[in-house]
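Forum: Protein Structure Q&A
Topic: Joint prediction for protein chains with partners

I've read a bunch of threads here and the consensus seems to be that you should model interacting components together rather than docking separate models afterwards. I'd like to see that in practice. Below is the full input, 814 residues plus whatever partners are listed. Could one of the regulars post the assembled result?
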Amino acid sequence: MLASWLKTVALAALVALSPLATAAGSAGVPEPVIQKGKGDQCVEDTEYMRKNHMKVLKQHRDKTVHEGIRTKQYSLKNCIECHATPNEKGELSVLGKDNFCQSCHTYAAVKVDCFQCHSSKPAGNGAMHPIVSTRSGPGEKTAAGMRHHLSGKSPSLNSTLSVKDIAGVIK
Amino acid sequence: MNNFEQYRRRFLGGALATAGAAMVPGLMLVEMAHSRAPEEPVSSRNRWGLLIDTTKCATGCTECVTACNTENGLSGKTGPQDSQWIRKVELTHKKTGAQHSLPVMCQHCEEPPCVDVCPTGASFKRDDGIVLVDRHICIGCRYCMMACPYKARSLVHEDLNDTQLAHMPRGKGCVESCTLCVHKIDAGENTTACAEACPEQAILFGDLNDAGSEIARRLATYASKEIRADLGLNTGVRYTGI
Amino acid sequence: MQIINREIEGNSAGYWALLGGLGALTLIGLFAAYNMEHHGHIITGMNNQIVWGLPHVFAVFLVVAASGALNVASVAGVFGKKIYKPLAPLSALLAIALLVGGLSVLMLDLGRADRAIITAWEVNPTSVFSWNVVLYSGFFGFAAAYLWTMLDKTAKPFYGFAAYGAFIWRLILTTGTGLIFSFLVARQAYGTALLAPKFIVFSLLYGTAIYVLVLLAAYGWGRRALGDEVVRRLKNMLVIFIAASFYMTLVYHLTNIYFARQWDFERFILQTGGIYTTLFWLGQVVIGYAIPFILMVAPNTRSNRSAIAASAVMIVLGALAQMYVTIVGGQAFPLQLFPGYIEKSSFFDGEIHAYTPSYWEWMLGIGGVAIALAMVVFAVKILRILPESLADEVADPHAKK
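Posted by a regular:
Agreed with the consensus. Here's the joint model:
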């Protein structure tokens, strides 16, 4: 049983902190910025896509990988072709603070696994950089930095997106 | 018109018609090769493979390796943790000193050991014979890497940070290997990056199930072998000259 | 005399220090796993040539020892040796704890550990790993049921079913662990059916050795009586298991040496392999088999509790050495793609593959051991696992069988 003075303190703290909660609620997470992509409309209407895009993508991916069915309607690559918009660096992408996939997913606090493997940029962009070049001098927190620290070896693979850019989405 | 003119017209007409008729089978074959519609699944009607003539393969030449790296967005680096989907192997016979050079990549076996051991079925053989990794369900256990007799598989050891090419998704923690340029085959290009790039045309791509294809005819004519034929895996990649 | 099981008091500074220390090692192990997941395996020493490294050495050791730790309980429940009955609850607990430790390391080392759960429904019937998902889960069930029938009088009717079930299940499980390597046709170290029974024999040795260490520690630090009779019988089991393990090792290498195509591999392991040769001869054979065998057989030392404890420690060290030689050594020797040829390539064909474990791998492996031991240390405090006394007059009179 809590001592009565302790109960008073706890109650007071709760009352004091509650405005903070409501303040956070009203300030809140920034609402998603939905930049218009290419074309007039998506392959399905908006409400359907909001509810089902994950299901649609999941079913289609198995057909593509296992059966070689590469129809464009539900292809992730095709989604990116339309929905990629310029990010802060000026590249077309669906990742980035105000870009299509990331801003909604950050708002909904749902991690999206796709871009661990899939490029977030439309096909044309990728072809411009066929072989990834090396760059030295990573920070401590990157994989390369860790390795550098522990084994003295130099890192590999550069990126035009930093870890911070895609934080909260795939990290 | 005199008789000769009439005769000439009839002759030319007949010749053109015959030539046209002769071309039709060729056009139809080309049609059939491109005929898989995008919504049609692959089938075991085709079995894609490579025939590599090692006598044409030059020691020190790595054009196929470079082409593969470019095509698939690999770094091209050759450290112990870097992915290599294809490599040139230089052989020297221990007793005779005979030398050979040849590229080794995933052999796309008919009975792949990597498919047998994968706990999730991520390592699988497509109906048309291409052995692939479904990276959506790969958990990165590396059992397939232990099982592969050809050391064909690589693990992606670090974040790729959105440097992947749009047509070739690959990611940290998943295992990968030569895809026989499945994206090119599905697009109807019917070739692989390595076959296209070889300056000596040592690598021949084709449909092993099509008796009329060049690869099938060559396999039926010349002696060829699989690497580690003793394992009975019936690989899709064959070699001549060793 | 009735043997009563009682929780240990667990109030001393020593107890909390032990639990705290194991907890700290566990946290360090989890920290290592976090880093490996976050940065990728690039921070480890594992690479495309040595794909299973130190974490797997620890994990397979723990899993193999887990099934063997149930041996003491099986001797009581299946083979009816009454003196081992009071020892059985600790045996079942240890089996569960070691398996948890081993599986933790295995699952945390996955390239995509977040996807480990999909192995529950994405099943490949030809994959030993898929079988193991079922076998390991089933083992938990059987061992837990077995422990329950031992602790709860009302569950006694199920004792026989649990005991036999756990025994048979454990044999299948250890066979499954051996078959992981047996089914790899291409590597010269593996691809032999002998690995399955070899792992079963090893499991008996490693599991019983860990059991002896835990028992000696629990009764020594817990200040409870542990008579010489119990210790003598466990020591005799260890002696037999060392002999059997040595036999399995001998047959494996002898057969390999017989085949011309295996000479290069055997020469590598037995003679020219550097660290692997040292670990095999010094680690596995001398420290793991020879010295403990001599200590536990020689008249001056075989009744000496310190000598027996030291032997058990050496058996464990020998076990780790054996796992390193089997798992890492088997990968260090290159695949022979073209027999008769010297191979050279950018992908390390034809060369002995290099491997240096990183700190992260040590942290993860030791973390797994710590998880297992922490579970045991905690469980003996909250459950009635350990008999109050195992003194000779308590344990022995009802034992003649």
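Chain B touches chain C through 56 residues (CB under 8 Å).
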